[in-house]
Amino acid sequence: MSRLVAVAQGSLAGDLTGTHRSAVVIGGGQAGLAMSHCLTGRGVDHLVLERGRIANEWRDRRWDSFCLVTPNWQCELPGFPYPGTEPSGFMTRDEIVDYLSRYAASFGPPLLEEVAVTRLRVDGDGRFALTTTRGTLTADQVVVATGPYQVPLIPRIAERLPDSVTQIHSADYRNPESLPPGAVLVVGTGQSGCQIAEDLHLAGRRVHLATGSAPRVARRYRGRDVVDWLADMGYYRKSIDEFDDADAVRMRANHYVTGRGGGRDIDLRAFARQGMRLHGRLSAVGAGVVEFADDLRRNLDNADAVSESIKDSIDAFIAGRHLVAPEEPRSVPVWAPDDGPTSVDLAAEGIASVVWCTGFGRDNRWIDVPVFDGRGYPAHHRGVTTFPGLYFLGLPWQWTWGSGRFCGVAADAEHLAARIAAGPARPVEVPWIAGTPHSTSPSAAEWTAPRTVA
Predict the structure, then answer these.
(1) pLDDT of residue 105
(2) 82, 197, 380, 388 - which has most CB atoms within 10 Å?
(3) Listed residues 356, 390, 422: the one ending a domain
(4) 301 and 222 in one domain?
(5) Closest Cα partner for 141 from 433, 417, 430, 413?
């Protein structure tokens, strides 16, 4: 811990009631720390509140073998670019935690750890009042930087599984040894689902994988990491207002790929050839039997098509710029499924565990400020909400594709810091509703989600 962090904690020991700051940042992950760095640079008196420890989400909600899927060089937090020796590598979970801890130590944010915000409202004096586990403090302006994936979502269909089957969400998965012996059903083929399925598969576990509609992307193409090509092509800088279908863009699932072992493709067809059982979307559970839809072939074909379309874009970029890059043959499917729906008897297959890789939702009920749409998501433009003085940071597609990533949060934080330093402005007109539900965010009737606080 840096000396300045220690000073902040020491000077605000005990009850926070009566404390006032020009700005308060809620959340001590990469977004909150980036915000603090930018506010510090502008001389704004502020405080950062973190319900756990620095990098809490990375520390407590990632499995043991987790690593970034984007190269380390994209870690460009304000004033602290990636300091390691492997810019083309992929930091592991523990390395990410260390990176963020060293970032905090580099400038000493006024950070209080183990302080949860349970309510945010406006008091009678027009100030923001933050009720916390250590009392109530006030602020002129507030930045909510609590991350986009707060509440693990598990479908109600999970209630129909036998009690003998262990069920966990991807947020609670740590390693193959943490699950009871036997086969494992992994539900969902976003980044978490595919990587956890691979983790179990490499450990020799029998894996059944219920696929979804998430696309995939090649790790490398024509001599470079695909992320390098996409960065040069401007994809991470493209703003959301350049799209006619902004809401649909935000709802797209991330492409699955991995940084494990130096980075490689995730080819579900190859896993199938090696013994992994692939299925369509999970559709029903009853009497110890799980049923899957007749969409496995379509799911695999669509994922491959997206990957090939990205390669098409790279080819066009290379040709248009007259770049020299090695030619590379296109991927050829190594396995194809039989058509038709499938069902699996859990006991007969020895399935003892289910890992739900079904995404996360937001819970903003602790925020008593009128900035949300009918779905409970904040209306904002570049993080500036319709309520003067309240901001959000770290949302997917907050402004660009890079907004929710290490590579884009710096620009978003600096934009908000300039607004905050100027003081609360009049209500902003929001040309579009930002923060649409995560691609797996469902209706309350379909899912179970615990009540959480920031």
Answers:
(1) 97
(2) 197
(3) 356
(4) yes
(5) 417
Q: Name the domain boundary from 316, 339, 356.
A: 356
| Residues in the chain, overall count | 454
Same domain, 146 and 158: no
- Give Cα separations from 312 to 228, 269, 306, 330, 331 (angstroms): 15, 21, 10, 10, 12
Provide, for the chain, the percentages of residues in helix, strand and coil under a 3-state DSSP scheme, each rounded to the nearest 5: 30, 25, 45
In this structure, the number of other CB atoms found within 10 A of the CB of residue 14 comes to 7
Least confident of 73-82, 226-235, 247-256: 247-256
Instruction: Report which residue type is found at 426.
Output: R
State mean pLDDT over 405-419: 94
Inter-residue contact 163 to 146 (CB < 8 Å): no
Same domain, 282 and 389: no
196 and 228 assigned to the same domain = yes
Please tell me whether residues 218 and 256 are part of one structural domain. Answer: yes
What is the extent of the structural domain holding 369? 3-150+360-448
Q: Please check whether residue 128 is in contact with residue 139, taking contact to mean a CB–CB distance below 8 angstroms.
A: yes
| Burial tier of 213 (Cβ tally within 10 Å: 0-12, 13-18, 19+) | middle
Sign of the four-CA dihedral 410, 416, 420, 423: positive
- Per residue in 275-322, pLDDT (tens digit) is 999 999 999 999 999 999 999 999 999 999 999 999 999 999 999 999
Residue 55 shares a structural domain with residue 129: yes
CA distance 421 to 43: 8
The partner residues of 80 in beta bridges, in order of sequence, read 77
Judge whether residue 8 has pLDDT over 90.
Answer: no
User: Residue with structure tokens 């369509």?
Assistant: 280
26 within 8 A of 133, measured Cβ to Cβ: no
